[in-house]
Amino acid sequence: MYQGESVVEEIVSRLPRSASIAGHGRKDPFLSKPKSQQITLKGMIKGTRNMLGRYVGKDAANSPYFPPMISAIQIVGPGIKPPKELSGPILDEEVEEVKKWIEEYKQSWPRTGITLMSDGWLNKVSKKDFLNFLPYSPKGTAFLSSKDVSGTKKDANFYVRLYDQIVEEVGDKHVVQFITDNARACVSAGSKLMDKRKHLVWTLCAAHSIDVMLEEIGEIEIVKETLDEARCIKEIVYF
């Protein structure tokens, strides 16, 4: 028996008898399509499998650029030859397009101001710490820069110097808010930053605060037991 299967069976036995799988017994819409369309869809599925095999993230299909790509392939029709690599001229053109977009984005800063967001992450391969900085305005969010903070003493003085440097890079007059996580050193640095730059408001990251609260809630015994049971079901369903 698969590990955890007995637990799943016990959980399932508690479900009401009326519980059923949504859509059970319905005809697969894929099979109701004409054979020609089935062949096309099968080809797309194989292409998707190849994307996943090449370590392209599953969320790539949710990209706004994915449907236009499929449409372009359909318009050209059979026989289209894909590029052998995406570097070189193709990548250079995309880089230039992104630069133009960023410049257009920056033109709105004097009018609307921006919120600077700090996001820390650990590279699990290189074991290095990074801090990403992203400016947000009604125009949208963009990537500004990434700082390697590995091996540094991450106290309040370190963070306030770094935050102040980033504010200078984008322009002091453009920044109206600075958002960081709620680590003690970041909280202290945020207060010091506001003392130095009176027009700027420092704010804790709501998402990080909620994440911490949910982690603590997850340690409550009854909640923890429920989550453990849910994980067992997930292992069976996605095995």
Automatic annotation (TrEMBL):
Q: To which species is this protein native?
A: Amborella trichopoda
Query: What SUPFAM superfamilies does this protein map onto?
Result: Ribonuclease H-like (SSF53098)
Pfam families linked to this entry: DUF659
PANTHER family annotated for this entry?
Answer: F16P17.2 PROTEIN, OSJNBA0013A04.12 PROTEIN
Q: Which N-terminal stretch is annotated as signal sequence?
A: none
* Matching InterPro entries: DUF659, RNaseH-like_sf
Q: What is the lineage of its organism?
A: Eukaryota, Viridiplantae, Streptophyta, Embryophyta, Tracheophyta
Task: Give the protein name, as stated in the record.
Answer: DUF659 domain-containing protein
Ranges for domain DUF659 come to: 84-233
Judging by the UniProt lineage, the source's domain of life is Eukaryota
